[in-house]
Amino acid sequence: MEKRLRSSLHTSAEDFLTSAAKLGLKSAKPSLKALIHRLTPSAALSSSLLLHLHRSISHSIAQFKHLSISTPSALAQSPPSPPTKRLRRSSRHSKTTSENSAASDHENAKKTVTESLQVYAYVALMCVLHPKKAFSPADLLPAVSELHDNLILFESDSILLSEIANLCEEWWKEDLPGREALISQTLPFLLSRSLTLKKKVDVHRVYALREAFNLFDFEDDSIEDLKLLLIRCVISPLYLKTEDGRRFVAFMFGLSGQLVKEALAMIRSQIPFGRRSMLEAYAEIVFRAWKAVDEGSRGEIVDGFLQGLVDSAIHASSRPFAASIRRVLGGFINQRTTDGVEKLLFRLAEPVIFRSLQVANSNVRQNALHLLLDLFPLEDPDSTKEVKDALLDKQFFLLEKLLMDECPDVRVVAVEGSCRILHLFWEIIPSSTITKLITKIFDDMTHDVSNEVRLSTVNGIIYLLGNPQSHDILKVLLPRLGHLILDSALSIRVAAIDLLLLLRDIRTFQFHKVVSLDVLLTTLATDQPLVARKITKLIIPSYFPSKVSPEEACSRCVTLIKRSPIAGARFCEFALSEGASLPALMELFRVFISLALSPDKLESNQIDALLVAAAYLCNNLVSDASYKIALKKELSGDKMKCLFVAAATGRAQSSVCNIVSLISPDAVDGLLEECMGLVTNCSGLSDNVERQAEVRSAHKMMLSCDWFSSMLETLTKLLQNTAYGCHTQFGTEMPKYNIPPKKQRETRSAIKISGKRKTASGKKFSNSSTSRFEEDYAIATGIAWQIKDLLIPEDTRKSMLGSEVLDYAFFALKVISEVSIVQCLQCDYMSTSPVSAYTALTLHISCNNITLDGTKKKDSVDSSKSSLNHNLVDQTIDHLLNCTNKLLEAGDTRMSGKPSDSRDSYTCGMNKASQTNASRPSDGGSTFTKERRLSNLVKMLTAVLKFIVDSTMMDLASSNRERCLKFTVDYMEFIISNVRRHTYDQLQLKEEDMKETFLCLKSSFTYAAKLLNLVLSSSSEASPPPPEAYNLANHLLDLILFSEECLGSGYAARLIAVAKPWLPDLVLALGSWYIPKQTSGKKVRSTASDTDESSFPSWPLILAKIELCELSDIGSDEESDRVTKSEEFSAFKTLLGMMIQLLRANHNVLDAVGVFLLSGSAVGLEKKDFELVLGLLHFICAKLVRHENREWGELNLMLESLQEIYPQIETEADALENCEEGKQKLQSAIALLQPVWMCYISETGREAMEEE
């Protein structure tokens, strides 16, 4: 075919075009270009080719139009005639086949035509691009025009569209005659293509043809489609991303005044949501457009757009929105050196910015300050020097004033902006102004009460240091920042160290003159890891430099440890991460070990620091296997024992343990007895974080040296000693359990229990049995903490659960936990640690299917396994509930200070111990006060409640949930009653006790709400929630109320934050008493007989008081002693607002809770408490259910209840004669209910009364 194409070129133009069309564009394209460009202007084919090309294009277009109008069925069929008979199935099939064949032929014919047109368009393009211009543009124009004019017909063929567009594009670029006629279809196509395909090359093509858009009449109505495409370019990410795209959008502003308005409106709508890159693109576009457009469009940009942006930047409602607007204005601010821009910015901003800096709204002041800092210095370039100086002084005056603004956010911007201005314009600012401004920053802003302001001050000074001309004055002022290294905010301390790091790298500064070395070392020793690491980076060139010999570097580090032992040890912790090499650290480790083993020249604290530092270095070195081997060779068993003997403190001994666990040296059996002292001398461990870290190190060492079993045996024996002490001291029954045959022998400890046992608190006990028991109990508390902690890591948990002494430890903890619970009100040293360990061990034993002989249960029978799991958990729950029952029974007596009249042996033992405890001062001479008893009780009951809820959530407990609910209700009732009682007795909790007690109350609230959720989730119509769920919900709401009343609104607000996720459960539980009646259709009676007056919750009473206070500015004259003003219950009001939203969202729950509140009004009516009646009814009618919205019609239970209550209120109001105030309240209540009564139940109510 290609040879034929070449040969046809020598015959005629018609044969050449026909051959090319048959060959197709893809095959003929390479040859066509070469053949056409080979033609000369004098060749005969040069004139005939254009004529035949025009004819071929016209013929093909006519044929294409005919095929587009004609349908395949019309081509396939003759005019229809009535069938003589029904066609057979085969005939119908042949007809369908015929139609399909006709349609296929039709499509093929169209395809052939479009392929021919593709070739013709390409031939025309090659003629235009002929290097010798062999073809006349005038002869070629008719063919090109016909292709252009029919461009819209070929929308289904993208190749043909592209070829025609290329042809017209080249015609325009070549500036050939008649090019104006070839853009009306081409430009919309290219514009649409760029927006659809989203290719950069298409954007470049559109930009190259931009001048052609000037030929369009944008005032004509027919141009709307093109205008829409142009507006789409304004929000197209591709146009905003590319340079040509932004230039084209800016050029577009000059096409039409109306187009300018629409484009600016589109940009304005995108500002609130645009990304930074998009906003910066808009800034560039608007600035380019402002420079290029005529005066009319420029006025629209300035007055209609930029002035609005300035106003919006000042009055924006949010900081991100204001920042986005300023980013668009940045297109002009960054080009302020361009002629006319400075004048423009002054004209836009000056009338509003100075006034806005002094308004009352802090948000406006902040936005205006941001804008002023961006525009600084704001001046009129055409004004005189005196005017400019006066305006500059005004700006500095306002800036200095805003440094002392009452709003911290404004001060943050002011201090950062001041430092930025000083950095950028130091040379031109008068020295007096610099001195005044910078002195205020150093003297006032560094001591600001706001953390953010102080942080911004440090960051601003760091930025100011970037200007070398500021160094002379900063060298004098920087020592005033020294106190910031001890700031309470971590971020400020970190920023202060960053400042010192910057000063270290500036030759003219010495950082130790800003912050003394002693202060730096103290901070290194005590501060958080982030600060300590940065200080290490600061001083490592001085105390462990890499540019000196290893011996010199080690000597300097030893000097640091001798000067500040703890700081030197922490320095070694971060040395590797701050650039120290492993070989140098290995040498330093050897030096430390050598010095620790020759202690004659060192003090004990320095030796301890060397060991701690050696442990840090060892931790860094073991990451490399070769160094781990070297460390193991370096440290023999005898050497490790010497190191342990040299360690004088628990922290140093812990460090030796860490080294042993990291490198596992040989022959360290001699350390066992010494290390066991770390875990057995554990009095006060649960409250000592530092000791806890030391004990964990000992645990790791025990595990790595295979001494874990011996450790557990020793700890278990100590627990058994304490359990036996509980038996002898309080008469606690020792549990009976069977020991498997393999354990009939007495459990042996591998070592003797260390004789160095000391209590952490330093108490000295007498030789009496009670004092000895307290010592043993303190140790058992520490062991209990260890057992719970050992259950957290997987390796120690696995070892513990597989231990042969697991059952001994479990039953010993059981006895100690019983005494801890029952005796917590008598003995101030009782702790929750045994209870926490006992319950945690129960859960892990059950979850891991461990029997109490230390073996795993067989998994063959799932049902028996589940039964055993539930059995152990249920036994533990029963045991704990029995203990708490004894505690709560004796609680009222003990909390009130009255003697107990119990006669059983257990109580006698309790009384004996409590008398002994009461006669002995505890905790440095303080007595066991009511406040301490309350704190002890709350912590103990919280631990029990936590276990009940956890086991229930894990589906390990099969006990009666009603009993668990009853315990929770009794617990809450006990706490509330005692808080109320002690409030009258002026209960005064210490700050520490208050925080601890409140933390337990928050936890208890969460656990109780979880339990309530579990009970409600498992309820159904057949099995409704028990009454305890309703009681618990009321007690939890009372707890919030009394926390606000006794502890203040701050504590109550925190408790409400905890309660918020569980509020739907509380609301549902409030209505749980009446929801079953809702579904069963039983009649609801809401008299006081339904609600026990003595157990009526307190929160509805306060609710009623709040409602009455809202009804009038002056409260009732007979208010309760516990309620003064409604403002005191601001947190409780917030809770009520959340409850109202939940109730109004569900009419069924609203109906049930509404009956409960109506029952409360019935209680008030019987008690003659008319304030309660009016307050609750006002809450119902004004906030819960609105009569004007016709909401009562769906509340059947409330209407039934109202049918009974309303007549009682009327009767009571009529009977009151001597109490005018009470009668007035009842009449107000009647006025609230009367519209509902008249609308819904008036007739039925009267009929019922007549029948009675």
Detail the topology: elements first, then pairings.
Blueprint: H1 2-8, H2 13-23, H3 25-38, H4 44-69, H5 72-76, H6 89-128, H7 137-149, H8 158-173, H9 186-197, H10 200-208, H11 224-235, H12 237-241, H13 243-252, H14 257-270, H15 276-292, H16 295-315, H17 319-333, H18 341-356, H19 362-375, H20 385-402, H21 408-425, H22 431-443, H23 451-464, H24 471-477, H25 490-504, H26 517-526, H27 529-543, H28 550-563, H29 565-574, H30 582-596, H31 604-621, H32 625-634, H33 637-646, H34 650-663, H35 672-680, H36 689-704, H37 708-730, H38 769-790, H39 794-801, H40 806-822, H41 833-847, H42 862-896, H43 905-919, H44 930-953, H45 961-984, H46 991-1017, H47 1027-1047, H48 1049-1059, H49 1063-1070, H50 1075-1080, H51 1099-1111, H52 1130-1144, H53 1147-1166, H54 1170-1184, H55 1196-1215, H56 1220-1251
Helix pairs in contact: 1-2, 2-6, 3-6, 4-6, 4-7, 6-7, 6-8, 8-9, 9-10, 9-11, 10-13, 11-14, 13-15, 14-16, 15-16, 15-17, 16-17, 16-18, 16-19, 17-19, 18-19, 19-21, 21-22, 21-23, 23-25, 25-27, 26-27, 26-29, 27-29, 28-29, 28-30, 29-31, 30-31, 31-34, 33-34, 34-36, 35-36, 37-38, 37-40, 38-41, ...
Region (Disordered): 72-110, 892-928
Biased composition (Polar residues): 912-928
Protein name: Condensin-2 complex subunit G2
